[in-house]
Every structure is written in C-alpha cells, then in structure tokens.
Fold this sequence. Notes:
Layout: H1 3-27, H2 34-41, H3 65-68, H4 80-85, E1 94-95, E2 101-104, H5 107-113, E3 135-143, E4 149-157, H6 161-173, E5 180-181, H7 191-196, E6 199-200, E7 222-224, E8 232-235, E9 241-244, H8 267-274, E10 278-279, E11 286-288, E12 291-293
Amino acid sequence: MNRSKLLKMFALIGAILLFVVCLRRFLLGDSLSLTEYAELHGTPDVPAPSDVPVPSPSESPTASPAQEDRPDDTFSSTLTGAVLNGDTQLEFRQALTDAFYYEPLSDDLRRYITGVSYPALPQDGQELSITLDELSYVHILHYDFDGNPAEGELICNSLIAQDLVEIFYELYRNEYRLERVRLIDGYDGDDTASMEDNNTSCFNYRTVEGSSSLSRHALGLAVDINPLYNPYITYNSDGSETVSPASGVSYADRSQSFPYKIDEDDLCYKLFTAHGFTWGGNWNSCKDYQHFQKAPQ
C-alpha cells in the first residue's frame, strides 16, 4: 500500500472516531466523564481517610456484627453503605477521586434497604417504578457544621450519579457546609425524622407528602439539602401554611437572613441548576427550598 493510500486510511479512521465521540456526547447530553471532568476542574485536596473524623454511633447507623466482620473497604469507613458495599463493586466503581465515587449496590446493601427505603414487595400488586439495578451508591466528603471534613453517602438513580459526584465535589472544594449526609434507611425510611435531623438525602421510595403520587425521590432523582433550614411549605385553603419539618418554621420566612439558606445566590442552587436540576423554591403551588430534582432522560 503506497503512502497516499495510508494517509487516506488514517484520515478516514480519524473521521470515524470523531463522529463516534460527537455522537456519544450528543446522546449523553454533552456530559463529561469523571476523568474529563477532573482534567477540566483539577483534583481537590481531600484529606486522607485517616484524617476524616469517624462519626459517632449516634450520628450514623451501627453495622451489625456480621457487617463488622467484613474486610475494611478503601476508606475503613463506618458508614453503613460503604461498609456493606466494601470493595465488592471496585470493578464497576466510577471515581473522580478516592473519596468521590459512585458504584452499583452490592447484594448486602440491597438487602439492607429492602423493606425500608425500597419496598419489599410491589405495592398494590403493581410493579415498582424503579429496580435495584437502576440505583447507584454515591460516596462523598463534605464539611460539617463545625467546619470539619466528614464522609457522606447517598443512594440515587444511576442517571444522576455522576451529577451528584461532581456537585458534591465542588461543594467540598468550596467548603460548603452540610450537617450530615446519611442514607435515609438509618431513619427507618422516615422522611420527617431525616428532615428534623437536618439530614441531606436522596432515594426513598415514597409518595409526595399529602398525596398518592410518587415523589421524585422514589425514582432516586431528587436530593434534599440541609432540609431543616430549607423547609417544605404548603399553602392551605384557609390562608395558613404547613411547614415541614415542623421545627423548620423559623426558616420559612425567606426574606430573613440566616446560615445555610438556599436561594438563587447560593452555590448549591447554582451547581444543581447548572447540572439540569430544577429547584423546589421556584415552585408556585408550594415551596420546597431543600429540594432539587432532575427529569429522567
């Protein structure tokens, strides 16, 4: 084969590769891989696992003796999801850094959430709207209210797992404070208890409060951020308001200035909306200042 034909062949191969890359970007909505994202944004200075404070037993669910016998995972973490997944999903892990990653749910983690945040049986004889295979475990770091780095974890729809890793990564880089980020199963799947504890959470197969419609949380496509300081407010026919959680009533007046308030100038709002999420604080019929959700693609 002469030189001219070789050059034409290489040019054709290059054109095909470029077309494949462009087509993939189009189909994924111009999303970047975590590797590409890290190259663009750099890698944060994250503390080594030994530098991350270990949550006290009162702050996180306690692993059972059977779980404690499992080999330590990458972080020697005490977080329930991290302990249950361990290193079983390393082959499938998508990591931005050692501390910011997402991966499938292990069999142990699936058993842990089944009957709590994930129904044990189809409700009313109908198939559930999401399968366990469609969920991902997300591990992050965040700054707590004392300004110390801490571990956090969520379960979400796999469609937004990369979004969450990137968003919480940027929040951590900017030392944005979240009081705690725990699986809602540690609260027996009780959304009110989780909100009262100011827990940031995502997946919970439940209906919208006061209705029979499935919440976007049931699909793992919504996140509640510092919910005590950013309550859910509904307006009653008599002109009164219902604030959830009830202890967040002091933060219902958004004209006031107070720490941890999410508004359109807040970094959390900017990051979530930049990733295609909508904010419940912009709704008209009610206000859900803690809530960010994304439409399934």
